[in-house]
Write a structure and sequence with these properties.
33% of the residues lie in helices and 21% in strands. It folds into two domains: 181 residues, FAD/NAD(P)-binding domain; 146 residues, 2-Layer Sandwich (D-Amino Acid Oxidase, Chain A, domain 2). The N terminus is likely disordered. The two termini are 32 Å apart.
C-alpha cells in the first residue's frame, strides 16, 4: 500500500537558530538572498522528492508545509523498482535499499492460509533487475530531508496559489510572509488539493472508492514467515516486514465513507474484522497500539485531469492523480513525477514552455496506473461467495503459471526508466 493520505510526516521540528524563521531547519545556506525560483506546496514524499530533484538541477527551491512539524506516522512504504530507479537519479536510492528488510517470498493467500499465488524475491529481482524496498515512511522522509540544503523546508507555513502565472508574468503564492513570486510552483498538496481546484474548477475531484484502510507498524519480536496479502470477501490484509524487527500491517475493507469504529477503538475494529483469519494477521493487529492505528477512507481521481499543469504550476502526486492503494504505486508515481518534472527544467529553462512536456509524459501513464489500481480494487471488493470463489480459482490457476508469465503483468509499471538529470545542483 502506497501512501495515500495526509502530509509526509516524519521528523520533529528542529530547534531554531538566531534570526531564523519559525519552522526553518537550521544549518547550511545556499547563499542566495533572492526569493526561490521554485516553490513547492506540500512537504510529503512527493513534494520533498520534487524539491530534491529541482535542487539537483540547480533550481533554487523552497518547500512550504502547513504542518507544524514532520512527525512520524505509523505507516510503511513499498518502493517498487520504478521508484527506486528514480531515487537513484537523485543519489538516495542506495540508502533506502540498505534500510529495507529482504524477505525470501511474497504472495497472496486466502483467509484460511491457503496460498493462491506467490513468487520468490530472487526471481522477482532477476526479472526486473531490482527489488521492492519495504521501508518505513519515516525513513524515506528523513533520507530526502538529509539530501536537501538545511533551509529548504519551512514547516508551519501554509501556502496557497494566488495566480498560476503566464509567459509574461510569474506565479504568485501566498505564504505566512505575504505574497511571493515564483518562476515555477509545484503543487504537492494532496488529494484535497486546493491548487488543483483553483486550476481546474470544473473537474469533479476525488471520488470515494468504497474502501476504508487501516495502517500501523508493530514490533512482534521476530519477523513473520509470510509476507504479502490475504484476500477475503470485500476486504484484505497485508504484512510487510521492515527493518529492526518491525512489521507494517494494514487492512482495507468495504465500508461507508466516514464510518469509524463504534467504540472509537480501531484496533478492536481490526480484530472484529480479521480475528478469525490465518496467522499471523490477527496476532499482528493485536500488537498494535490503539492510538497508532491510522484509519482513512480511500478516494481517487477516477476522472483524469485535462492536464497536470497550467501556466507556471505543475500538479504532482495525489494532487494530480490520486489512486487506490492496491498496486502500491501512489508514492512511487509521485516520485516519478518529480524526476520527470525536474528533467525538463534547469537554469535558464522557461517552465511555461517546459510544462506541456510534463503533462505529455505523465498524464497517460498515471491515468493507466489509476485505472489499474481501481481494477484490482474491484477484485478485492467481490463479496458474494460465488464471485469470490471464481476470483480465487482464477488466482490459483494463474499462480501455476511460470513466474515469468506472472511477473510480465507488472512489467509496464515496474520497468519504467527515469530520465537523466543534467543540472548543476
Amino acid at each position: 500500500m502506497g501512501r495515500q493520505h495526509g502530509t509526509g510526516q516524519d521528523r520533529g521540528q528542529d530547534g531554531e537558530g538566531p534570526g531564523e524563521r519559525p519552522g526553518e531547519r537550521s544549518g547550511k545556506r545556499d547563499g542566495n538572498p533572492d526569493r526561490p525560483r521554485a516553490i513547492v506546496i506540500g512537504g510529503g514524499i512527493g513534494g520533498l522528492t520534487a524539491a530534491l530533484a529541482l535542487h539537483r538541477q540547480g533550481v533554487p527551491v523552497r518547500v512550504h508545509e502547513r504542518a507544524d512539524s514532520l512527525e512520524p506516522v505509523g505507516a510503511g512504504l513499498a518502493l517498487a523498482p520504478n521508484a527506486l530507479r528514480s531515487l537513484d537519479r537523485l543519489g538516495v536510492g542506495g540508502r533506502l535499499r540498505a534500510l529495507a528488510t529482504p524477505h525470501p517470498a511474497v504472495g497472496l493467500r486466502h483467509p484460511s492460509g491457503r496460498w493462491l499465488a506467490r513468487t520468490s524475491t530472487p526471481v522477482f529481482e532477476a526479472y526486473f533487475g531490482d527489488t521492492i524496498a519495504a521501508v518505513a515512511r519515516a525513513d524515506v522522509i528523513d533520507t530526502l530531508l538529509d539530501a536537501l540544503p538545511e533551509d529548504t523546508v519551512r514547516t508551519g507555513s501554509p501556502a496557497a496559489l494566488v495566480t498560476p502565472g503566464s509567459a509574461a508574468e510569474p506565479a504568485v503564492v501566498r505564504t505566512a510572509d505575504g505574497e511571493e513570486e515564483a518562476g515555477l510552483v509545484v503543487a504537492a498538496d494532496g488529494i484535497r488539493s486546493a491548487t488543483r481546484t483553483a486550476l481546474f474548477p470544473r473537474h469533479p475531484g476525488p471520488r470515494y472508492s468504497g474502501f476504508t484502510t487501516w495502517r500501523t507498524i508493530v514490533a512482534p519480536g521476530r519477523l513473520p514467515a509470510a509476507a504479502g496479502e490475504v484476500w477475503g470477501r470485500g476486504r484484505l490484509a497485508g504484512i510487510v516486514p521492515l527493518a529492526d524487527g518491525r512489521v507494517y500491517v494494514y487492512g482495507a475493507a468495504l465500508a461507508p465513507a466516514g464510518e469509524r469504529a463504534a467504540d472509537g477503538d480501531e484496533r478492536a475494529e481490526l480484530l472484529r474484522r480479521y480475528g478469525d483469519w490465518c496467522a499471523p494477521v490477527p496476532q499482528l493487529f493485536a500488537l498494535a497500539e490503539p492510538d497508532r492505528v491510522l484509519r482513512h477512507d480511500v478516494w481517487d481521481l477516477a476522472e483524469p485531469l485535462p492536464a497536470h499543469h497550467l501556466g507556471r504550476v505543475a500538479l504532482l502526486g495525489d494532487a494530480a492523480h490520486a489512486m487506490c492503494p492496491f498496486q502500491g504505486q501512489g508514492a512511487c508515481q509521485a516520485i516519478e513525477d518529480a524526476v520527470v518534472l525536474a528533467s525538463l527544467l534547469g537554469p535558464g529553462t522557461d517552465p511555461v514552455t517546459a510544462l506541456p512536456g510534463y503533462t505529455a509524459a505523465r498524464l497517460p501513464r498515471t491515468t493507466a496506473v489509476v485505472a489499474g489500481s481501481r481494477r484490482i480494487g474491484d477484485l478485492v471488493a467481490l463479496r458474494s461467495p460465488a464471485a469470490a470463489l471464481l476470483r480465487d480459482t482464477a488466482l490459483t490457476l494463474a499462480g501455476l503459471l511460470p513466474a515469468r508469465a506472472l511477473l510480465s503483468r507488472s512489467a509496464p509499471t515496474y520497468n519504467w526508466q527515469p530520465p537523466t538529470l543534467g543540472g548543476a545542483g
